[in-house]
Amino acid sequence: MKIIIERNLEALSVKAALLFTRISEDAIRMSGRFVTALSGGKTPRRTYEILSTDEYRKKIDWSKIHIFFVDERCVPPDHPESNFGLIRNSLLERISIPPENVYPIRVQGMSISDSVRNYEDRIKNFFYMGKTGVFPSFDFILLGIGQDGHTASLFPGTRNLSETEHLVVAVERKNAHPARITLTLPVLNNAANVVFLVSGSEKASVLEKVVRRREPALPASLINPARGTCFFLIDEEAGKHILAAEVINRA
Ligand code: 6PG
Q1: Which of 39, 70, 182, 199 gets mutated to test ligand 1 (max ligand atoms within 8 A of its CB)?
Q2: Are 173 and 71 in contact, with CB atoms under 8 Å apart?
Q3: 3-state secondary structure at position 140
Q4: Atom of ligand 1 nearest to the CA of 83
Q5: Is the pLDDT of residue 130 over 90?
Q6: pLDDT tens for residues 146-187?
């Protein structure tokens, strides 16, 4: 686990953009492509905007980058809660990435179970995977943490946390929240790099439980890539309960 504390959300976002750039360059050099899965939420928006500025946009070889989505709410793309909408507006429409390199979770015009199957099949096709029980290895997965300890759309106390076969599952929500679709823990834990972005004092308490105590009831504590690296990129407010000795300020 590598913990990096930056002063504020802006510095955190610059660091995340640098990490994305560096790891994508390495992956493209090694294997000719870079495969990422990106999250929605408020925190990563600035990272996406920075990646689409001239300084980064021109450095990155977008033709070799493949963008998947960590999770999605079952809402239209123009809905304020759509992760596809967020990532399209803050990144995709500002860079020249071939449209066939973007793999949205399709949630319109099909049932949730068909959406799940469709997304899982497209991931399997991309990674040339036949059998079940085999998991793809993304180069870079960007995650956030909710105040309740959820990550991706994996919520505390849900049976999706014990999924061992599927790459993608449906998430039924109570209280009129839209249903969601998410990558599963075995996929997240098979990545080469998992990068959590966490900002703000309201996340300090949960972050302490995830990073220091690894409380197993919190889905974010279950992220532990077996053959990869897990980065926590956090700002000072979110990191106020993390000991300085635990922090490595370089990526
Ligand atoms: C989403 C993600 C979710 C998110 C956390 C943190 O699409 O919203 O599924 O896991 O990363 O809820 O969100 P914030 O960045 O908004 O705090």
Answers
A1: 39
A2: no
A3: strand
A4: 7
A5: no
A6: 999 999 999 999 999 999 999 999 998 777 789 999 999 999
What number of residues does the chain have?
251
- What string of DSSP letters covers 151-199? BTTB-TT-GGGG--S-SEEEE--STTPPPEEEE-HHHHTT-SEEEEEE-
180-183 and 168-171 strand pairing: antiparallel
DSSP label at 128? T
CA 5 – CA 235 distance, rounded (Å): 5
pTM to 2 decimal places: 0.96
Quote the tokens at residue 21.
């750039």
Partnered with residue 142 across adjacent β-strands are 195
Nearest to 184 by CA among 170, 198, 174: 170
Q: Of all atoms in ligand 1, which is nearest to the CA of residue 180?
A: 9
> CB of 224 within 8 A of CB of 230?
yes
The model's pLDDT over 194-204, given as tens digits with 9 standing for 90+, comes to 999 999 999 99
Residue the block writes with tokens 């560096």: 22
Q: What is the pLDDT of residues 220-241, one digit of tens each?
A: 999 999 999 999 999 999 999 9
Structure tokens at 42: 């408020």
Q: Of 215, 196, 195, whose CA–CA distance to 206 is shortest?
A: 215
Paired with 154 in beta bridges are 151
Q: Who has greater pLDDT, 126 or 174? A: 126
